[in-house]
Structure prediction request, 81 residues.
Amino acid sequence: METRIALVGIIVEDLQASDALNKILHDFANYIVGRMGVPYPKKEVSIISVIIDAPSDVISSLSGKLGMVKGLNVKVQYSKK
Prediction:
């Protein structure tokens, strides 16, 4: 199956959402290439970038599950290749 590279940008606006976020990311660990998180205490948020290499339906599933978690703001950017 053909895969795509995508960048999943996550802003954690409620730290109570961290447990749900980590569980979902763990469920998709086989597709995750890398992850970087930066806390931003001044604005009381954390920003997380997740690089994923997966079929389009898996990327959509991940972003959909993350998007349903209250306290997370999620956007996906796809590679053109």
